[in-house]
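Holo prediction — protoporphyrin IX containing FE.
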Amino acid sequence: MSLSSGICAQLYDFARTHNGKNISTTLNGVDVRIIQRHEDADHILRLNATNYRKNMAWFRLVFGPSRFSEDGHAWQIRRDLTQSYFNKFDREKTFQLARHYATQAVAALTEAGSTSDRIDDAILRTMTASVLVDNFFNIKLNTTGIDLSVLATFMEAGSDYSFVPQGKTTDLYRSRLQQLPELRRKVLHQLGYFRSADLPHSPLLQDLLAADQRNTDRVVLEHELMTFMAAGAETSAATMSWACYLLALYPDIQDQLRGLSQQFWHSPQPSWKSLSSVTPLARFISEALRLFPPTPIVARYAIEEDQLSDNPVQAGQNIMVSFIGIQHDKRLRDDPWLPNITDTRAQVASGDTMAFSIGPRVCGGKQFALLEMITFLSIFLTRARFELTSDEPPAYLWKSQMLRLGGQPVRVTEL
Ligand code: HEM
């Protein structure tokens, strides 16, 4: 297990043992305040966000500076470069792309299901990365020569540094850092494909390349693409993997959602506009994100002292906002450990709000991610059945997003 994988299980333990309370603890030798109260998360991430900088020294070191890791002016420049594309994407085009790649993925899952009793996360990763690259760059992923497993291995190796505060990284993990350059070189080389002269027209890619060539605040195309792929493809793939697990764990919910999906796909003109009104599908995705948030924490440090609902915060304090803790708060729902696709009371810490974070650093691709995942789900349910192959409780694998160690114990069979 990587240095950091154990922390996911610890976050679930904290949610059980200190439900609704913040905790001071030590992670990987680092003092951290774990935030489990949504009121304090709102204060840190939104209301007083200027006092809480991103704590991603490790991420910058491994992946290079990008929109994801930077703060202040360097972040603003990168955000302005890309966000309009993430806001204004063509919903119906994305719906068709998600439909197409989900159909391919579910065929691969059922084929694999004839010999395996575990979900192969690589199939889901190919699906989400294909939609992302096709949607924003008009490029078919399978023509790029990009090997997603290299990026995934790099993410896993780099993720060991997730819980290391500013300045301590090299002291604590110097020996491990030496393993990364070769993987990094391979990933950068593969992403160099996006510099080819004869690629289809993509305004987003043109803007990124122009910023790279002008050397605007050290924007490097490959760094932005690397985090774009990690933020935009790995997260949605992880969520779909947990969604398949939940479908298998709760066959009644699976049957109910399948009925709605079949009805939708048999309607005269299936479109995103009509699918978006099938509320239980959206609620299910929200519940998957609530129970198993792919980004279970976000890391910050306090610039100046401050006051939270329970305790003061010192300047320089490491803070981790635990979406696992917040989303399992008993004050907000009757039984936070079970999915509920009908109860809409607990919106404040639902998966479709908290799991994408809140405030100025909210996920840039939230609307895109929700659209594609609801579409994936509707296709999966009309094509396949999901059966649990083991009752063992989840063990976690941390790769900058939370996966299930060994893959989900789910067999996928054709309907
Ligand atoms: C299930 C899917 C997803 C989840 C749960 C998710 C979650 C998150 C979270 C929690 C953050 C904030 C991280 C932090 O503050 O440290 C974030 C940031 C970000 N996400 Fe997502 N994400 C998802 C999908 C996507 C997709 C599909 C895209 C791109 C199309 C995307 C693009 C971004 C970007 C660009 C940021 C950086 C925002 C900024 O700081 O300006 N994400 N995401």
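READOUT: The mean pLDDT is 91.
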